[in-house]
Amino acid sequence: MKKVLVKNFFKDIQATLPRLLSVIIITALGVLIFVGIHTVNTNLQDMAHTFFKQQNVADFWIDGDKFNKTDEKKIRGIDGVEAVQSQLILEAEPLRKPDVTVILHGVSGGYKLNTPLIVKGNFPKNKREIMLLEDHAKSHHLDVGDSYELLIKNTNKKMSFRICALIKAPEYMSIATSIEPIQNSYKTGVAFMDEETLSEIAGENIYNQICVKLENNADKNYFKNEVKERLGYKVSNLTELPDKTSTYIIIDTIQYIKVMATVLPWIFFIISALIMFTTMSRIIENARVQIGTLKALGYADKTIMMYYLSYSVIVVVIGMILGCLPSMKLAVSLYNVYSTVLILPPHDMFIDQMAILYAFVLTNLFCVGTAFIICKRELMEKPAECMRPKPPKAAKDIFLEKITFLWNRLNFSAKTIIRNIFRNKMRMIMCVAGVTGCMGIVLGTFGFWDSNSHFIDLRYEELYQFDLQVIINRNTPQIVYHRLKELEGVQAVEYEMDTSFSVYKDNRKESGSLHIMEDTVSLMLISEKSEVPMELPKDGILLARDIAKKLNISIGEEITYTVGTSNRKEKGFVSGLSDSNLVSYMGKSYWENNSHSYSPSIAYIKTDNPKAVANKVMDYDFVIVAKSRNELIQSIRNNFKVIDVFVVVFISFGGMLALVVLYNLGILNFYERMRELATLMVLGFRDKEIRSLILTENIIFTIIGILLGIPFGIFLCNVVVGDSVRFGYVLNVYIKPRSYVFAVILTMSFSLIVNRMLGKKFRQIDMIGALKSVE
Amino acid sequence: MAYSVEIENLSKEYIVGETKIVAVNNISFKIKEGSFAIVLGSSGAGKSTVLNVLGGMDTPTSGKVTVFGKNIAEYSKAQLTEYRRESVGFVFQFYNLMPNLNVLENVELARQICKNPLDAKETLEMVGLGERLYNFPAQLSGGEQQRVAIARAIAKNPDILLCDEPTGALDYKTGKTVLALLYDVCKKQNKTAIVVTHNGALAPMGDVVIRMKSGTVESYEENSNPIPIQELEW
Known about the structure:
The complex is a heterodimer.
Chain A: H1 3-54, E1 60-67, H2 69-76, E2 81-94, E3 101-107, E4 117-121, E5 129-133, H3 134-139, E6 147-152, E7 158-168, E8 188-194, H4 195-202, E9 207-214, H5 220-231, E10 235-240, H6 245-286, H7 288-297, H8 301-324, H9 327-341, H10 353-379, H11 383-387, H12 399-402, H13 404-407, H14 412-423, H15 425-462, E11 468-472, H16 478-481, H17 483-486, E12 490-505, E13 508-517, E14 520-521, E15 534-535, E16 541-543, H18 545-551, E17 558-563, E18 570-577, E19 583-587, H19 588-593, E20 602-607, H20 610-617, E21 623-628, H21 629-639, H22 641-672, H23 674-682, H24 687-721, E22 725-726, E23 729-730, H25 737-762, H26 767-772
Helix pairs in contact in A: 1-6, 1-8, 1-9, 1-10, 1-22, 6-10, 6-15, 6-22, 8-10, 9-22, 14-24, 15-22, 15-24, 15-25, 22-25, 24-25
Chain B: E1 3-16, E2 19-32, E3 36-40, H1 47-54, E4 62-67, E5 70-71, H2 77-87, E6 88-91, H3 103-111, H4 120-126, H5 142-155, E7 160-164, H6 172-189, E8 192-197, E9 208-213, E10 216-222
Parallel strand pairs in B: 3-8, 3-9, 6-7, 7-8
Antiparallel strand pairs in B: 1-2, 1-4, 4-5, 9-10
């Protein structure tokens, strides 16, 4: 470009920058979300990848009873096996804390597979040392060097350990397991130790799990068959990595973020392209004479094209910079949200450079692309045509006018408004798209929030009919625990016994937990659809959904199962499915009829004065802890606090989107029609009348946008909430009526804010100036 | 005969940047009710400023502007809007029609906010556009558009009709027709009309001719025997 032209360019840019501002803001927002979410995603992915690789995560977990060294050897002999590691997994509870479960892994062969990541300390040096999951240790205020006394479940064996390391374990990225479906580091812990440590309990060289890592291109199906062939009935379950939920959850999480990372930024990019389209059209139309002059002077089309394309390049560059700067902050705060839900190893966040590159390409495609199309269109005209002002767009009769009886009833303002709306269809599409986007994002976000809180309301508010939950020692005799009923102020007591539960079908095993309830429950309901009181089936089991699904079991089918640590295979009928993915239910009579003893661990109490009763029950030796209903629900709600971050971030993004789009178009509309408005002023129209004329359009667009935004919001909510699982229950999309109202009010007020800002602009109209000149 | 417009010691100053520009410097004149007044002057003479003040689009720096007994120089912004609404009909050089409304609707638009408007169709027939009622401005020639603008101004049934270079954007012949129309309408309805122009050749057609120069009134002539526009040549 010639020097003078460059000088002119910078003067032009200075003059047009305010108009380009809205495109810059929207582009920046799009880039921010795009780069931010992709950065979270890449970091999680990178973290998971290195973590899986460094900790040498297994490809298969073989569960079974009493594996020995020979079995291990048999597996090692299969073609394609790279490494094998046997372990014994037992459950224990800390002394005096029976509501806490610590999963013990006695590992053979020096932690070659699924190696714990040591955050602090060293690998065990002797039989008394264990490595404890860091999060669990912290919630129990334990540190390296402290001792941890554990009671091995189903035995009376007490063991005292020394904590030699705090760890993160790749097998436990999430500890929201069957026994404790709510992720709670206090209630669930994991410890790793040498196999010898546990051998005094189960015997030497006895294992119940073999982990296997295959060579890179080994045949997995061949391996699976060989395992069955070589170990036969000893194998109860063979889990492949993607089915190992507690490990693979991180990969699932990444998938879930990917959806968000795709949908949201596109809304912004598309809208930025639309805004670019209207703004650039306007800018270039204004510059017609200049373009014509340049052409007449003999400048090549290419030079002129470059000149105007540079506008959009500036938008892209500034938008990219403004978007990228805060994206790391957004990424970190989102990452922190995930680190409260998952147990993540320490990780240094880095920005996703590829995402920046993609964002750069995308914004260029959208912004520079639209600018190119418009320039091309304008450059096709001959110089002489360019130098004449564009003839005004002829108004045409619109279809509505054909419905004469309706049309004739409208007053002029209505007619002008309607004709004007249809005269500039692009602007209509834009405005509506902007508001739809805003409404969609706001409603979708509210829906996301509602779906979660509705889930709590349903699951917990409605199911928890008791006032006090009392955890009691499992080995308490009936005579003793029945004392609870006699207490003053206690109106009713119901008991629950929890145990583990495995179902077998076709050589496969699925585990979950089994809750044995009273035959008629009225304090702790098990289904939100149930009547109060609810009768449990007398002749069968309510099976957990996930187990039924994975083993393809239908209602009425006879199943084979084991309970607790017993190996006795029992048979029973499935009389229904439970609401939970992981918990199965059984009535007390049915349980006792199968010659089991009933030893409850929880008592639910109905009382008018939970505080007083709680104080009294704590005096009993057999009572471990008592918690009121409110305390329990509050702690569950706290788990959801993280969602608030998303809600705030997305609602403000949606709002900004609407503000920018509406304001931008309002301003364009305002400048385009300045002359008309001035005419109306001269004719003696009052300010209010003029304002309503131009602002009604915005309101109409807002209303259409809101209407379209409702299905869009529901769609977004479906994408984000989907069939995701919370605490072992499927989360359903649910949007409260109140949220529709809020979303409408919010979107409407964004539009009104814009109208206020535009209204102020009217006072700047210079009647005389506007009417004097041609343009 | 009463005066419809009386201007006394009118001054208007603008501040552009740091310099003060005196557009109108202490002028006074009167126009009788029902007369066709021509304000002449080259660009920058201050004639448009006078018209804008008279039309309630601008307020003077000092002086009195009495229109039918009321001093509009003291009016507030809202009062000026009401004044424009009820008392003034404006015709511009560039017509300024609403592009989204057809001819009839453009006239109706102005009528709907007045108290005693004239019938829109009749007014349009009077300006010779009875056949083009449903055309949009973009479908009309410049002269036709200006006639719509005149009909719009007349239909409000205003006290005074103000025209700022009404023929400025028209060719010689069309300009003549439009001026003739303005004159006829003014006489028929007995309206005071003030036409601002730089074209000195139009002077003989006015009942009153006010010549302005550099913000002052250079001369004020009453013309007892105006010559019809058709007989003027320039």
